[in-house]
Amino acid sequence: MSLKQDLFRRPAGSWRAWSFTLVCAALTACGGPVESEASDEASPEVATREDGLANVRLRLMAANLSSGTGQDYDPGHGIRIFQGTDADVVMIQEFNYKTDSAADIRSFVDTAFGTGFSYFREAGAQIPNGIISRYPIVAAGEWDDTQVSNRDFSWARINIPGPKDLWVVSVHLLTTSSSVRNTEASNLVKFINANVPAGDFLAIGGDFNSGSRSEALFSTFSQVVSTASPYPADRNGNTNTNAGRNSPYDHVLVDSDLRAYQTSVVIGSSTFANGLVADTRVYSPLSDISPALSGDSGASGMQHMGVIKDFLVPGDGTTSSAVTVLSPNGGESWVGGSSHTITWSSSGVSNVKVEYSLNGSTWSSVAASTGASSGGVTWTVPGSASTNAWVRVSDASDASVNDLSNGAFAITTGGGGGTGQVFINEVLLNEAGSDVNGEFVELVNTGTAAVDLSGWSVSDSASVRHTFASGTTVAAGKAVVVFGGAAGIPAGTAGAVAASTGTLGLSNSGDTVTLKNASGTAVDTATLASSLAGTDGVSANRSPDASATGSFTLHTSVSSATSSPGKRASGVAF
What we know:
Strand content: 25-35%
Keywords: Endonuclease, Hydrolase, Nuclease
CATH superfamily of the largest domain: Endonuclease/exonuclease/phosphatase
GO molecular function, one term: endonuclease activity
Structural class: mainly beta
Pfam family, one: Exo_endo_phos
Shape: globular
Organism: Corallococcus llansteffanensis
CATH topology of the largest domain: Deoxyribonuclease I, Chain A
Distance between the termini: 52 Å
Radius of gyration: 25 Å
Mean pLDDT: 86
InterPro entries: Endo/exonu/phosph_ase_sf, Endo/exonuclease/phosphatase, Lamin_tail_dom, Lamin_tail_dom_sf
Number of strands: 36
């Protein structure tokens, strides 16, 4: 299949002035129906979400809530959940209803959401993806998912209140394997980079079929959206979303611009600080999400829970304000009692409140109000050990304008104190002979504390090649080596693992290797020229060896050996 719908190439300011009738006509001609009111005027439902020119609450939902045996919404369980949770924009999967005629689909949208809602549903798919929106869809279409034949990636550009449009992509990744899902993610990232303006908001939502949050696809998606915790949860704190509530299948991921406006989900008398996993079986009081019934999420064929995140975005005529945490931003290891500077950037904010958490849920103050323009505040790190520490910076006068560290950082105390420093020390791009299992990337920790590598990834210039399993650590002064395959690991190599994708795929004509932490932030990058890959079995090594600032040279330039995976260049153990 080819790209179903090209973007209208118009200046950003002209979108709202264009007649929606023209957009509908163009999309209908391509086979992808968009249904909407022709006017941009807000319906009464929309108006209740705005307070003059104040911020607007925007609720995004990922929903594969079909039930029964037909992968559709005819039984009505999902409809009641939609009615009770009252989302503004839904990235929906298995978008089938009754005969799937235009009249039936329109009837479903009217019943589940309201007559003023717009929708896009991809054409020609057995289990189509789609987008349903309270606000006008000004353009929509589908991008090819080359890994599956019965659906594609559905996208829509939505004219939400305020100065920015919102782009949403509805996805339903394949169950086959994590490597296939990462291929799908890589392809989608390319579409987004080629088509979505950097100045607009972006959300990717839907059924990822991800078995864990350490899958490579999250590192791939982190190029365009935030994949960091904290995660939405149900009434009992469970963040998993499949029917058995033991795997994180479903997600709403947004770019850093929109993430800065994330706020608690408030439904009736209930508040969910990090977003909601909507499971009617555990929700209480159920009256908050009426007419949903307690058994709806457990209905036959209901394989997923809905995921909801709320945002307070600037309304029309407001001045955009934002803060972004710069440090600590995830992956650091700071010693309790030491002094560090918490830094941030900001716009449209006079004073900020700075807080920290040792568990991601309980917050303590660093500064109740300090000048935003200073960009930093000195912090004495608390003397309590933690592997789940966070920093939050918010507008002192508007808590909805806030940002968290992109990932957790560690605080160490006592004899386990110190700071870890992990970097790429040695890379074998051109394996000895033709067994690519022998390619390897060696990482060294020259710091004074162990570093948790859970969720960290190693990529080449093409894609993520390895994601470290949960619980993987590299001790201070030690090394870990990622080989292309288990068959290539020499006997007795300390700290050796096989690439989680089954290959490193390094190029004999040169390559770029990148190490990222669990939040997707690049920790180290090694760009290796073809001259470092020209001889079979000779690796590229830092010179001096085990120096984070050393340049790469042929291993034979630093020792008589051709390579030294898991050891110092001299052959001595780390």
